[in-house]
Specification:
CATH topology of the largest domain: Transferase(Phosphotransferase), domain 1
GO molecular function: ATP binding; protein serine/threonine kinase activity
Family: Belongs to the protein kinase superfamily.
CATH superfamily of the largest domain: Transferase(Phosphotransferase) domain 1
CATH architecture of the largest domain: Orthogonal Bundle
Strand order of the largest sheet: 3-7-8-6-5-4
CATH class of the largest domain: Mainly Alpha
Largest sheet: 6 strands, mixed
Structural class: alpha+beta
Strand content: 5-15%
Distance between the termini: 42 Å
Oligomer: single chain
Helix content: 40-55%
Keywords: ATP-binding, Kinase, Membrane, Nucleotide-binding, Serine/threonine-protein kinase, Transferase, Transmembrane, Transmembrane helix
Number of strands: 14
Organism: Quillaja saponaria
Radius of gyration: 29 Å
Number of helices: 15
Order of helices and strands: HHHHEEEHEEEHEEHHEEEEEHEHHHHHH
Number of domains: 2
Mean pLDDT: 76
Low-confidence stretches: 1-38, 72-124, 427-443
Bound molecules: adenosine-5'-diphosphate, magnesium ion
Protein name: Protein kinase
Amino acid sequence: MEVNTSIVTETPPGPAGKNHYSKHHYSESHTHNHDHGHSPSNTILTIIISFISIMVLLVVFFIIFVLRRLKFAKKNGTWKDSSSLKNTSSRFIAPNTSNFNSSPDVKDGCLYGGNLSRTPQAPKFRGVQVFTYKELEVATDQFSEKNVIGNGGFGVVYRGVMSDGTVAAIKRLRREGKQGERAFRIEVDLLSRLQSPYLVDLLGYCADQHHRLLIFELMPNGNLQHHLQSSHDQTSPLDWWTRLRIALDCARALEFLHEQAILPVIHRDFKCTNVLLDQNFRAKVSDFGLAKMGSEKINGQISTRVLGTTGYLAPEYVSTGKLTTKSDVYSYGVVLLELLTGRVPVDSRLPPGEHVLVSWALPMLTNREKVVEMVDPVLQGQYSKKELIQIAAIAAMCVQAEADYRPLMTDVVQSLIPLVKNPSSISSSGSLRFQNHAASPSY
Ligand SMILES: Nc1ncnc2c1ncn2[C@@H]1O[C@H](COP(=O)(O)OP(=O)(O)O)[C@@H](O)[C@H]1O
Ligand SMILES: [Mg+2]
């Protein structure tokens, strides 16, 4: 099990059993000494009394043992207490998810919202529809190549037109392995419960004997990486202010996951390809296939296999497997650096010393003279030095090696708000996209 519940689920029967044994033993020997030299009828009476006392003691210890277990389980929110939402979530996240053909949730070819819908405390699923595979075939023109809009680790994403005319992004998951099934369940589970304008909307899903598909709102401008890395003949480069606003949208998404969801959620794969852009270049975070629900009661820390994407992984997560919300903060810092520099997290084509973005950028981020040298050349003339120094300071805080010193996402949001609200005069004059969207009352 990946969630670090070893202390939670494995309450050792040892100590209680040991006490029990030693006390039992003490009672017996005590009784024995006391009986020495008495008449036979007295001896029988004493044996009966001793036997009854032992039985009473046994019952008392058993009750104490059961009560202690219950208290411990409740305190740590284990999956055993089926009445709590938290527990249902943990169970859903467990890696031993059933395979495609044996899922207990699949009925008549459809998956009915997992176990959550049966949990009284679980919030109701909002408008997430169940589609048949046939409907999705029609929507995507038989999953035609011409409708492919993305290709990720877990499957291919198609543009589709649903029967009511809604244009959607349809992700068809590859069937191999448990990880794909787990990713599917987590995306359905989380996205049908979490409502935030900064997370991509799940419209529906399909789960029959042979297929797993997810239907999302279509984000017409695709992923952020495409806009930062494509040659600028294909896409016009994102301007400074748009980048700041994307940074703030993403910070709000992670703030929501870490601090405003019922249980803290760690995204675990926050990166530029999982940041999607709408028609106004507003960002939403997507791809929750690797997400984890954490419990602050285990210090907000989860032990897990190291999964995610090279270049975005926090050093302590790589070395120990201990996952916290601060791992996402590190990944966020890397994305912020990509927005600032236009570089990718790891690029072996660059000269030695520049391969790893964080190592290359870190010394410059806190150097007021050098910081200008690391900025994406296409942004020249669009920012004030004051703004740049502030953004660089945020990035430096997020990617520092010591997880405890990284800020909370709330702090990042609060630091970015004034920069997005009051862009410098330089950026307003130098930015076409800024002028286009200046009127939208976003903040
Ligand atoms: N809702 C969407 N709108 C537009 N493009 C999308 C959408 N969802 C995914 N994509 C595209 O597909 C790519 C892969 O999707 P993603 O959900 O990240 O899959 P994976 O889990 O396989 O990584 C994204 O990087 C993006 O380019
Ligand atoms: Mg992805």
